[in-house]
Each structure stands twice: as C-alpha cells, then as structure tokens.
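Progress against Task 2.4 (sequence-to-structure conversion) is shown through the following example record, which the project officer requested during the mid-term review.
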Amino acid sequence: MRKIIILNLFTCCILLIGCNNNDTEMVKESIVEEKIESKQIVKVDYYIKLSATSISEYVVKYEINTNIPLPVEVMASINLKDQNPDDLYIGYSEKVVLKDSIQTVVLNLAYKKIPSGNYTAEITYYPRWGAENGNPKALEIKKTLKGKYDVLLKGSGVSATDFLQKKNKQFWVMENVWTGINWDKNSVVSEIGTYQELVVTCMNPDIIKAYYFTDADMTIFVRANKQTVLTWEKGQATCP
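Structure tokens generated for the chain above:
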C-alpha cells in the first residue's frame, strides 16, 4: 500500500512538471508573436494635392497640401493645355521648396509674356532630386508625385494660336535668314507674310533698307546695293 501511494505521488509530480513546461512554451510563443508584430512596417500613401487660381494677367497662386516628409524641393509648372509633342512649348517651370504641409506658392509669369488661354498648373515631386537637400525620410518615396489644377490665364491677351504662329515665323527667320545670304524678298514673303518698309535712321537709307514683317514681328535689314542680308532684329526697328 505504501508503495502504491509513493508511486501515485511520483506520477503527479511528473504531470505537474509537464504542465509547467507547456505553460512556459506558451509564454515564449506569445513573446515571439509580440516581437514580430512590433516589427511590422506601416505603409504611408504619400500625396500632393493642388488648387490654383489666377490673381492677375500673369500671376498664379498655388495652394498646396501634402503629407511628404518636409522640407523637399518640387517643380512648380504652368503649361498650356492640349499642346502636341512637336509644338513650340508654351509654359514655365521653376523649383520651389516646400516647408509646410499646407503652403502657398506664387508664380509670376509677366516676363514670359505668355498668351491667354487654358493652362494646367502642376506641382511635382521627383524622387531623383526632390529630397537631395531636404528631409532624408522623403528618400523612401520612390515614385513621382504630382498635383494638377486647370486655370484660365488672361496673359498678354493674344490667343495661343496667334502666339504660336508668330513664334514659328520668327524661328523660320532665325534658321533661314543670316548675314550675307542673298536677299530673296518673294521667298521670305511667302513664308512669313507681308511687310512694310521702314526708313533706316542710323545708316545710309539709300544703301540699307529695313523691312518690317508684321506677322513675325521682325525687321530684316538688307544691303540694297548688293541685295544681301545685313542682319535682322525682333520687333519694329529702324537701326540694326
């Protein structure tokens, strides 16, 4: 009988030890799970939001909202809508620094003399250089972020179509008319339109002739005695 009691006690001890070991394993597993959960990375959906308004003929105000780690550099742009890839580009861009998650930026395009029309304002973060001189956390952003907003600009009052026609005619003169070339008046007229003759004021007007082409807004000076081109000037000019 005594042996049976001792045997039962021994068995109970073994069972108790086994139970304690199982509890220990459960605790260990719980700790590991907590550590794994603590190492999970929270992904952030970064964005740039933009609204824009024209506050004068050439001035555009940008209202920017972003959650990018700041400061960073972005490109502020204004582009004429519906431009074709081979069209003469009409627009303007400059780098600006964003320091606040809600920030106002003003672009003044007066010196560009851009035409009136529908434009798209843009704020773009480029990961290649945007955080180069800014917040290192922004280096984790690997994609280009962009905010857009359409805006109507009065500009110079000239339509985009007329502006492009003038610029294209000016480029034709720059590429085809240079000092010393034979003067072919009819060929030039067929390319850039009619002209009016001006009186040269700083040289002998009997030798040097000035032809102002209104559609191109350019003046071409010609050596009448040799029928060769002297030079050209933008605008209406009487002295080369």
